[in-house]
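ingest -> validate -> predict -> emit
validate: passed (alphabet ok, no gaps, 607 aa)
predict: started
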Amino acid sequence: MRWPAGVLLAAAGLLVLALWAPSSHARSAPLELTDTLGSVEAAAVAGVWLDRQGTAGIEQAAQAASDFQPARPGTVHKLGPNAALWLHLRLQRAPEQRQGWLLKLPMPTLDHVTVFQRGPAGWTAEAAGDTIAVARWPERGRYPFFRLDLPAGQTRDVFVRIQHEAAADFAAVLTTAAANSQQVQMEYLSLGAVFGAMLLLIVACAARSWVYRDAVFAWYAVYAALTTLAVASFTGVAPHLLWPGFGALRDAPTPMLASAAVGAAMLFVRTTLGLRRRLPVQDAAMQALGVAGLVLALAPAFLPKSVHLPLVGGYMTAASVAGVLIAAAAWWRGDTVGRYVFAAQLPMVVAVVATVFRALGWADVPFVSQYVVVLGLTIEVPLMLVALFIRARDRHSAEIREQALSTQDALTGLLAPHLFQDRLRQVVARHRRDGESAAIVYIDLVNHGRIREAFGGAAAEQSLLRSVIKLRRLLRDVDTVSRVGEARFGVILEGASSRASVTERAARLIAAGLMPLPGLKPDVTLQFHIAALLLNERALEADAVQAALSAQLARMSPRTRRPIRFIAPEQQVSDPPVDSSMFAPDIDLDSDPVTGVRRRPDLTAVG
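emit:
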């Protein structure tokens, strides 16, 4: 059966009308708003129209309402510097509903948005965006939002004109005033916790830098402050709370702070990783990237957005990726700090690169929002502080070791000679002032030279270390001991006022040196000569004390049988020099010229 052509055409027309009518009706039917809805995605009910020239006004947009197409949620629009995107909403607040409604665009970096509503006197317009000072917005906040005039039971048309050079998804939201207030409070609670913690870290590091005069922590405070300020600007917190009335630079502060923050991060990473000695080429690259970021931070103030946005975005991407790679290289070379720097930088770099790629239209990266950058900040800054503490600990350890080399003998770990002299001057001064006595003792390892000649330097050094061990066993923690010569030790016994206490310790030291050490190769004994002075017997100046003790040891023969001698008391100055010894003259202390004393003294003869 063949149908007439007219019947077929009529059927086709009816089919087209049936398909078109529901969608046209859906676009023209108002959305009924009730208090129970809370919030609605405007893109799901809005019509969109792209004004490629950006010259259309509200009257032209209202006349072209039939040309608006249904919006597709999640669509990334690339408007460029001239085009404008129009949204059309037909709204009706249900009767007997108490809540007022708002239209918000939760995008702090949105360039410019204008909302048109028809009132009794015609169309009214309200504008906001980061090219306008927040103080001039109809409602101050982190991002633009507008109160809608929706009388209950009446249908109203709302037109939204959006201008934004970077590629973006303009997710407009319809929300009640109560729901919006609750969400704003939750947002500021989360952001306040993050920025409060960052501020605490910054103040603590600045204080530490001031107290300890540590410039590294000052660098961290600068880096953390710039990073925190850049994220605060990106999230709209800074324009809302810090500079709401400043609009001279329009939307330039955000890219300026972002570039400066990345530059500061490169310089700080360079300092923290200590690249100058480990990786000099990478160190020069990081320094160049850091300086470039600080210089490039001035570009947004003078260049148009179409020029500075790709420039800053490309720099941020390249510098961030380079920082992560260099941190990974330092980690691979065994630097513990590199591991923490890599872990700190990676989340922030992923967030920054994804944001830049989407903003510049280089890639459609889904699920990227301002809170991803905030999350990267909460991970990066504390971990960088951990890396800084580790590096500071290593540096301070090296400084302590360096200081120890100037205060301690490198071989024995005893006090350096100049500090021993200072201590001796203090003891002498206290004796003259308060009458506190002390004994100053010089001890020579007399067979040290012969040990070196016979067995070499290693055995000679071993003999010195053995001497220190034996000496420390006989001294108190408060006693001062120092290596004042190649094989000479100086000891200050504070509070010692009698020769008996000094003699007892000296005898034990000599006896310990004569005892062979089981299993020691070579089997070397230690031969000591000891000279002592009691300040309550002979109150000399510090230099004179040292000279007298050195002269007393110089007068002692290597084969002497009286190895412990005291400086004569003051009243005996006019008498011939008298040696005082704890050993009786009949004790033979003659020793082998190489190995030291071979016969032990008869300690029963001590007296």
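The two ends are 146 Å apart (CA to CA).
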